[in-house]
Design a protein that fits this description.
alpha+beta, 2 helices, 25% strand
């Protein structure tokens, strides 16, 4: 091969080699975990560092719920704000460890309401005070996450309950946002504080 042609051939091969980009190694699939999904408002979750057995209630629907009452039959509502315990409508209620069972015939009506926008649930209704020996002269009181100490509504950050033996009505709301569970209106009663159906 002539020297001039050989030089041209070498130069051409060098140009082609530099024009081809190097192969890009394939990335390994990402192992980054997907963000957890938010459970529905009425999903039972495991509480940690919140609540203690016997003082944890749940409000799932009109067939699965708990409310708080004095630990002894005939106890005054307000006088037991530091001692109230959870009573559920069924034994061994999931999410309410060591809760007691409501006296038969105590709950007369249950009206369940779920606010999916604000992420809270509540039940309201009537009860028969004689089934637990409550006094017709008892004007009632309020239970919430501050009193009794250790009380909680499973799956929520706050709750508020008012119980009025003189009127034989009750109400309880469990909230993701504490502002939706007003705890500073305990003397105003269920109808004004939580609204709802008391038929």
């Amino acid at each position: 091969m002539r020297p001039i042609l050989a030089a041209i051939l070498v130069a051409t091969m060098a140009t082609i080699t530099t024009a081809i980009p190097p192969a890009v190694p394939m990335r390994a699939p990402s192992k980054r975990a997907l963000p957890p999904t938010t459970p529905p408002a009425n999903t039972i979750t495991t509480l940690s560092k919140v609540g203690k057995p016997g003082q944890i209630g749940v409000v799932l629907d009109s067939d699965n719920y708990c409310i708080f009452l004095p630990p002894e039959e005939g106890g005054d509502i307000a006088a037991n704000e530091d001692r109230a315990v959870a009573f559920c409508n069924k034994p061994n209620m999931p999410g309410a460890p060591k809760a007691r069972v409501l006296p038969e015939g105590f709950i007369q009506s249950v009206h369940f309401f779920s606010n999916t926008q604000k992420n809270y649930v509540q039940i309201t209704g009537r009860f028969d005070r004689t089934k637990y020996g409550l006094s017709a002269k008892d004007g009632g009181g309020q239970y919430d996450m501050r009193a009794p100490v250790g009380a909680a509504c499973n799956g929520y950050n706050a709750f508020v309950q008012l119980t009025e033996p003189d009127e034989q009505i009750y109400c309880i709301r469990c909230c993701k946002n504490k502002a939706d569970c007003p705890v500073n209106r305990s003397t105003q009663g269920c109808v004004r504080v939580l609204g709802g159906d008391y038929s």
